[in-house]
Protein: isochorismate synthase
Organism: Actinopolyspora saharensis
Amino acid sequence: MGSGGCASPRARETYPRAVEYFQRNLTVRTRAVPPGQELPDLLESLPEGVSPDTDPVCWIRNGSGLVGWGEAARVETSGGERFVEADERWRELVAGMDVDDEVGLPGTGPVAFTSIAFADDPGSSVLIVPEVVIGQRAGVRWITTIGGGRREVREAPPAAAPGTVRYSDGNFPATRYGQAVAEAVHRMRESESLDKVVLAHDLLATTSEPLRGRYLLDNLTRRYPDCWTFAVDGLVGATPELLLRRAGDEVNSRVLAGTAWPRDGRPQHQLVTELIDSAKNRGEHTHAVRSLARELEPFCKELDVPSTPEVLRLRNVLHLASDVSGRLDPALVENGEAGLLRLTRAVHPTAAVGGTPTARAIELIDELEEMDRGRYSGPVGWQDAEGNGEFGIALRCARITEDADGGSRARLFAGCGVVADSDPDTEVAEAEAKMLPVREALEGLR
């Protein structure tokens, strides 16, 4: 990542010191579920509750993916070397495991769910190895137990609603966010040293009853099945953006930048045309794709970068999207330098969440954003013992914590790419549209 962090000292969160615990010589068993055996859907397999033993981890898209619970191991890292430290601890842990994997697919055997802080400082990143993982892909269902995890899977009752939801300003509310956007636009118009900066703000939701992560997951997967719905250590959301997928020597990414959303009664076909024809959005998208390709290219023997984007249609917004694919250098795969965490370290932050040029954009984020992003807009996903896995960008999400009054607090985030011809009011409205999925999920819409 470029120099500097993204957090203002006016509104930093307090993080625990970096910690780790390993259960040494863990026993890992993966077994296929026999065809025809009735099992609940992945999310319905998750136990109910909010204790650390049952707080879920999740990565699902269109009904396929991984869910898990319990903690057989946990690693927390921070700072500029957080990717490398997490990768080294993961390799150390895997090296001491006794693995019996009868399925042999990406996502079987040992799996770690990971959520990385956006900034070098001060955010805490986390890697969690669940005690139980249930996976499903291409018609194959499996169960992995790690350490003392139990294999019994029962259909859980529906997640309880969180009661009344009330909203209030976060650390960096929309009014000040609009002012920051105006200042960024002024800076870019006065100087040619910055092409784009991505600025974000937050919103606080308080619930009268405890908010379960599974409640949000249930609602998000039903309304946004084409997104990657995730949960890691209290960060829950549904991201439309795949940062990196690695399977053997193949690597893929879905880059999103450039946005339109329903407003003024415009039909969708008109919004699509306006998005494609918008010089601002096309330029923003070009910066994001070039940023990703430039950092990924040194790891690849082949890299396919589309010349024109497509339009991704979601309930709340439309995005310009480009699917980048490549084939990794076999030598780097062999020596471990092309594992998913190492690749992610090279490409984060892309122009889609930081800006262009990266170092200058991060400096401006640090100056103008009056909050700490934490793990919002950082990489989130899973990896296995072979370095395969999927990381999305933690967008359309909320960080859930307990509230002193017996309910919960959910901190929602949204951001927009700002360029020299951005309009502050429009960027505020765009951010509001991007918060809609989590707000709907909090309010029980499916």
